[in-house]
Design brief:
Elements: H1 2-16, E1 24-34, E2 37-46, E3 51-53, E4 67-71, E5 75-92, E6 97-114, E7 121-129, E8 131-132, E9 141-149, H2 156-167, H3 214-231, H4 239-249, H5 254-274, H6 277-281, H7 289-294, H8 297-314, H9 324-333, H10 338-352, H11 354-371, H12 375-399, H13 412-439, H14 447-465, H15 482-499, H16 541-551, E10 555-560, H17 565-575, H18 581-586, E11 589-594, E12 607-612, E13 615-619, H19 622-634, E14 641-645, E15 656-657, H20 662-679
Parallel strand pairs: 10-11
Antiparallel strand pairs: 1-2, 2-6, 3-6, 3-8, 4-7, 5-6, 7-9, 10-14, 12-13, 14-15
Helix pairs in contact: 3-11, 3-12, 4-5, 5-10, 5-12, 8-11, 8-13, 9-10, 11-12, 11-13, 13-14, 14-15
């Protein structure tokens, strides 16, 4: 269990929250050593306190070895790549193996020769590595570089001339540089469209794109509610009166005791907020990293399994615990007294309550990371809300200790709270399975099947609340309280609400669950190829433009994704409205570009984009193409993102992003279309 938890947090950290700074700088050179022999040299400058793994470690242990690939059809590799630099081998608790790390300045070399010395060639280098320090590991990165070798004459005279010329370009590292970085093209074929100038639209009418602060507030509220629920669990609730009594009765100075209790509550808030800090300072990868992560098939399947794991824990089949040595060290630190002692008291509370709070925080983590763009910030809001609920409860009870008498006594009802949470975890797990199904385009988990499974879960929960189903930690002869009966009735009402989702209808139903359920066209009553709401959008911008020229209509670019919850909400809440849908059907050419489509492009359409400093970005899948298309042309990577353009590719009005009220979307749509009609 210890190893599993360490691995879980390592994976969660490195996959979800990479941004801001880089800790490894790479440089790629090629040196001639004479007689048609060359060395590809990759130098890595690693920040203090950070390291990468040796290329020679066993990948089976879980850590990512550094991998160097020198690629060209015109060369023949000589031997294996070598590495040099500060090496250190030590035992890793997380991976239960000895690992060799590299730090400081590291040099990788690979010898090769040209198959045809007289012919020049472009030599590519692909570097895969993982950056770690003592506490966290960043997401693995793969970078590509290119260098060009000039052709070498067969005569000794010409060889000498070439050497003299190249010597002038020698670098500080010594040797002769025989290559130059391939310059970035002015226009990326199929990606960059110069006419798409979103900063200077043809008109300023419509809804201007504004920062959405409601999502921050909403996630804060969800975190606050999650914290209140966690307080009702068996791991936390019994500790409330004990802790408050310690401060209010265990000290001679009552005023000081109340003050310390308030500080204690404040430290709880600080600790939960601090959990999000590493996610703000970990190195970033690319602009669309969070979208790539949230739509990763295997990652969603992983979260599906984790949520099932959480659910079984809440059902009482086992407990999720942090290694005991962590709790012991924290408890020992309480002896320091003063503010430090109070801080470690708060930390001990957070640690020992993990078996109940872990699944709740894990659900919060999964929900935020899988659906949001600004993940670190939203996680901070979520954890702040969670910690604030605890701080308020402990603080108020310290100020008004007489309120402790009105608290319900610990008992079987706390297990009921855990089981209800278990059923909720079980239902939420299905969301991740659905996303993996959508992104993989298997479409096995239809909307009706999803709803049907939720109905089964709702029925099982109702039966539990009425005492017909029991779990290991339930009392055999427990009395069914009135509150359980009321909750059981409400659950039955939810079952009735869900049941309508099994009945075919022209308009979307279960709109309160849009974004969670599979899209309306992934259904037994519809073919996903039939489009959305009877519309058949183009999935290629250039085809949409050609169709727009024929029909003399503007193009509505809809940057969307299979795993985009807000996209589904827009389709079901806004697009389906009777005063919006006809406009979409008749007045525009709809181009729905899926940024998370994992289908590979034809080999002829696969390309690379020079991102600067010799780094290349692969455009391998359909999603890669449209994601990069969005970033390059609109400096945006959020979904949904809507842009109205003319048939000749000019932006009509200011693009808009995210879920918005019908009135705002309709204003954006109508004003852009009307402007286009007036200009014809």
């Amino acid at each position: 269990m210890k190893k599993f938890l360490l691995l879980f947090f390592a994976v969660a950290t490195q996959l979800f929250f990479a941004q801001i700074e880089k800790h490894v700088k790479l440089n790629y050179d090629i040196k001639s050593t004479g007689d048609n022999l060359y060395e590809a040299i990759i130098t890595a400058k690693i920040d203090n306190g950070w390291h990468i793994y040796s290329k020679d470690i066993d990948p089976e242990v879980g850590a990512i070895p550094t991998e160097i690939k020198i690629i060209s059809k015109d060369i023949e590799l000589i031997g294996k790549a070598t590495e040099s630099g500060k090496k250190e081998t030590s035992y890793s608790e997380a991976f239960a193996a000895n690992l060799t790390t590299l730090s400081g300045n590291v040099v990788f070399k690979q010898k090769f020769k040209l198959k045809n010395p007289e012919k020049g060639s472009t030599i590519s280098a692909e570097v895969t590595y993982q950056t770690c320090n003592e506490k966290v590991c960043l997401a693995p990165e793969t970078l590509e570089f290119e260098k060009k070798i000039e052709g070498i004459s067969a005569t000794n005279t010409e060889e000498k001339t070439t050497e003299e010329t190249l010597t002038k370009d020698s670098t500080k590292t010594g040797g002769t540089i025989v290559s130059t970085t391939v310059s970035a093209p002015e226009q990326h074929e199929g990606i960059k469209v110069n006419s798409l100038d979103f900063k200077n639209p043809l008109t300023d009418c419509g809804t201007k794109n504004t920062e959405n602060r409601e999502s921050n507030l909403w996630i804060f509220v969800l975190g606050f509610i999650g914290g209140l629920i966690a307080l009702l669990t068996p791991c936390v609730f019994p500790m409330i009166p004990l802790t408050v009594s310690f401060f209010t009765k265990g000290q001679k100075n009552k005023a000081k005791g109340k003050r310390d209790a308030l500080i204690y509550g404040f430290f709880i808030l600080v600790i939960f907020v601090l959990l999000s800090v590493p996610f703000h300072i970990i190195d970033g990868i690319s602009g669309n990293i969070f979208n790539q992560i949230s739509t990763n098939i295997w990652l969603n399947l992983f979260f599906f399994a984790i949520f099932l794991f959480f659910a079984l824990s809440f059902f009482g089949y086992y407990d999720i615990t942090i290694p005991s040595w962590i709790a012991n060290k924290s408890a020992k630190a309480e002896e320091a007294g003063g503010l430090i002692g109070i801080f470690f008291m708060a930390l001990t509370l957070v640690i020992v309550s993990f078996s109940c709070t872990g699944p709740i925080l894990g659900s919060l983590l999964g929900g935020v990371a899988s659906s949001s763009q600004n993940v670190p910030l939203l996680l901070t809001f979520a954890l702040a809300g969670f910690g604030l609920s605890w701080a308020i409860v402990f603080g108020l009870l310290a100020l008004f200790p007489q309120a402790l008498q009105s608290l319900p006594k610990s008992g079987g009802w706390m297990n009921t709270v855990k089981v209800v949470l278990g059923f909720i975890e079980l239902a939420l797990a299905l969301k991740f399975l659905s996303k993996a199904d959508l992104v993989s385009k298997t479409f096995l988990l239809k909307r009706e099947l999803f709803v049907g499974i939720w109905i089964v879960i709702a029925i099982a929960l109702a039966l539990y609340l009425f005492g017909k189903i029991k779990f290991p930690h339930d009392d055999k002869n427990a009395k069914i309280s009135t509150s359980r009966k009321v909750l059981g009735i409400l659950t039955f009402g939810f079952f009735v609400y869900l049941f309508q989702g099994l009945i075919p209808a022209e308009r979307p139903k279960l709109q309160l669950l849009s974004g969670i359920l599979p899209p309306i066209n992934v259904s037994y009553f519809h073919d996903e190829k039939d489009g959305i709401l009877g519309m058949h959008p183009e999935h290629d911008y250039y085809k949409a433009i050609e169709l727009a020229k024929k029909e003399n209509k503007p193009v509505l670019i809809d940057f969307t994704g299979f795993g985009c919850e807000n996209c589904r909400k827009m389709e079901e809440f806004v697009w389906s409205q009777p005063d919006v849908l006809p406009t979409l059907q008749n007045e525009v050419i709809l181009a729905s570009l899926y940024v998370d489509d994992k289908e590979e492009l034809p080999e002829a359409e696969q390309t690379k984009i020079d991102m600067g400093n010799g780094q290349m970005k692969k455009i391998k899948t359909i999603g890669d193409k449209w994601s990069m298309f969005q970033q390059v042309n609109f400096n945006n990577n959020s979904q949904p993102h809507y842009v109205l353009v003319t048939p000749d590719g000019k932006v009509i009005n200011t693009p808009v992003s995210g879920y918005m009220p019908k009135e705002d979307f309709k204003k954006f749509l109508d004003c852009g279309i009307q402007f286009y009609k007036n200009q014809k």
